[in-house]
Amino acid sequence: MLPTRRGLLLGALATPMLAMPALAQAPWRPNRPVRVVVPFPPGGATDMLARLISQRLGDRLGQPLVVEDRPGGVGVVASQNILASPADGHALILATCDTHTVMPAANPKLPFRAEDFVPVTGIANVVMALIARPGLGTANLQQFLEKARGAQPALTYGSYGVATVSHAAGEMVKQAARLDLTHIPYGGAGPAMLAATADQVDVTVVPVAVGQPQRGRSNMLAVLSAERFPLVPEVPTMAEAGMPVIADAWIGLLAAPGTPRPVAEALHAAVAEVLSTADFAETLKTNGFSQLGYGPARYAEYLKAEAARWGKVVREAHITLEG
């Protein structure tokens, strides 16, 4: 049978469609400036990371990133701002282990949890260190342990606040080394470090980057990480002394609830490009950070694991802060 005129016409129309390859959908891109809300005042490690990455990330997204410092309520003010923002990728929070893991575990009344947000990307970890005051007379970890175990009254340790990673890490040191230490909280890592250099507290637990500039006026006894940190390669880990205290603190981007997965993936891809450059990797290291680089799926699982890990520490140390 010969083909009909209609059949030939339909065939002619269908052939190009069948032959045409499927067009890949272009990745999402912002159409206006992206706000990055930081839950701390200017000058801290989180604010510093936001400003380090914002320009390069804006270049890749084609829109500027505007860093907004919104301190208050240990992350409450900043988090509620994002929870009330449109779910379109134009408002992010640079969340931390302090604000979205340790604090929620210590305060069940806190009006948010990390799982309330859409995970975008895990950017970096802050590496913590155990640092002794100069007048304590302990040049290394072993000397500190010997002095602490025989001290009457108990030695003191400073943190950068109640129910923070610094506080919880100090409790981890106490438990691992079987020490009796008295907690003295300060209003930030800087004040906690200054208290140690002024011999006002026996040891303190602060980020390596905070302690490094004060090495001439204090003794960095150990880093609280699985491996030695490149910024201070001569400082041992507590694990090397048989006490595996891992107290690194994550920093990453979260988006408003309901943000579409393609938006989160596109934002992560842009961050990954920034992290992959050699000069930025070096910048992170010299500022006391180690890279994470987790995408949305892996970041979500990581946050769950971190909530379980730090929740156990908080419960065992009886750290509470209910509003």
UniProtKB/TrEMBL annotation:
Pfam families reported for this sequence:
TctC (PF03401)
Query: Which branch of life, at top level?
Result: Bacteria
Keyword annotations of the record:
Signal
Instruction: Give a yes or no for keyword Signal in this entry.
Output: yes
Q: Where is the signal peptide?
A: 1-24
Entries under InterPro entries matching the protein: BUG, Bug_dom1
Q: What family is this?
A: Belongs to the UPF0065 (bug) family.
Q: What is this protein called?
A: Tripartite tricarboxylate transporter substrate binding protein
Task: State the species of origin.
Answer: Siccirubricoccus soli
